[in-house]
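Tokens in:
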């Protein structure tokens, strides 16, 4: 009898936990919806409504045993805190991971529809998060690349010189020189890269002056089809679209757009960004990472103590950037953080060993 009562109490506790989690998740989606508009807002409110249906299921099972309101899991409450204050792609990435960890698939008290809902919710949130990832992909790539390059390269430089037995003042000067050299190199490289990409896009854009020639094309030969075939259309689709464009000329006045209307217009130049902005961003990102290994020397530390503190500071920063990459990519944050840490410290260990050889 006591065994049955204990099992019933454990069952009620589990249902109450599920109920609290569903309430918290619905609140997260409503908070996120409050910071968005249009289609994204409607999707998030629909997710909150689905969580409300799950909540009703657990309420029905609990009946009079529903008890006092409980707090959701710590992870869900943290999501709610972030959603109320930021509402960013980071929250959606965390929500994606939360949905992927639903226990309903292995719980007989949850319906098959509920388990399917949670799996679909993961894909819905993945899609919403993908929009945010796409919007910040360029700047985020530059930020992660710049910061990590600064962290690893300057730590490796400082440890290598320090292991060779150089005095603290020399190490500090070498580190500052490495910071400036690396940041300037990053800025110059990014400037040339973005400027070159913009020039390539400009060279590939249709010439506006050629649109005036449309009205003089031979309707029988219809060489306009060659334009659309060169842009990737099949011969059949190119023929249909070219005839439609030429037909439009005969019934409308004014310029006719020769661009292919296969998708929403995209400002590719805006996507690439400006060369000067990219260069300044790269300089700042690299410098912000490269300054960390120098902090112990700036505060008067020297010798092994300074090198250990520098390695710890950089290690923590690498863990943080790795975890952020993991969150945004939907992968396991801890694994990404440890991978980043291993790569960074491994590179620094090589130069440290080289410094020991030279100093010895």
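Residues out:
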């Amino acid at each position: 009898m006591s065994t049955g009562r204990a099992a019933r109490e454990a069952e009620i506790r589990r249902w109450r936990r599920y109920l609290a989690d569903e309430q918290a998740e619905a609140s997260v989606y409503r908070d996120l919806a409050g910071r968005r508009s249009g289609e994204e807002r409607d999707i998030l409110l629909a997710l909150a409504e689905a969580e409300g249906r799950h909540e009703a299921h657990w309420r029905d099972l609990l009946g009079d045993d529903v008890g006092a309101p409980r707090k959701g899991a710590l992870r869900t409450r943290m999501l709610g805190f972030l959603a109320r204050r930021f509402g960013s792609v980071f929250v959606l990435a965390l929500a994606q991971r939360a949905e992927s960890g639903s226990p309903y698939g292995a719980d007989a008290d949850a319906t098959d529809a509920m388990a399917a809902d949670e799996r679909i919710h993961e894909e819905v949130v993945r899609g919403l998060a993908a929009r945010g990832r796409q919007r910040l992909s360029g700047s985020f790539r530059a930020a992660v690349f710049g910061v990590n390059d600064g962290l690893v390269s300057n730590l490796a430089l400082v440890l290598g010189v320090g292991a060779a037995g150089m005095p603290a003042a020399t190490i500090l000067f070498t580190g500052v020189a490495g910071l400036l050299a690396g940041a300037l190199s990053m800025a110059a490289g990014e400037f040339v890269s973005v400027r070159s990409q913009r020039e390539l896009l400009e060279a590939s854009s249709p010439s506006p002056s050629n649109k005036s020639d449309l009205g003089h094309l031979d309707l029988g030969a219809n060489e306009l089809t060659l334009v659309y075939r060169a842009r990737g259309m099949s011969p059949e689709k190119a023929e249909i679209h070219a005839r439609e464009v030429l037909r439009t000329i005969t019934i409308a006045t004014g310029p006719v757009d020769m661009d292919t209307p296969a998708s929403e217009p995209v400002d590719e130049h805006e996507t690439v960004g400006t060369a000067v902005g990219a260069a300044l961003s790269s300089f700042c990102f690299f410098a912000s990472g490269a300054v960390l290994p120098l902090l112990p020397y700036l505060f008067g530390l020297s010798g092994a103590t300074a090198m250990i503190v520098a390695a710890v500071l950089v290690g923590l920063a690498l863990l943080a950037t790795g975890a952020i990459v993991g969150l945004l990519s939907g992968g396991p944050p801890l694994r990404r953080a440890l991978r980043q840490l291993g790569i960074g410290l491994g590179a620094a260990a090589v130069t440290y060993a080289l410094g020991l050889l030279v100093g010895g």
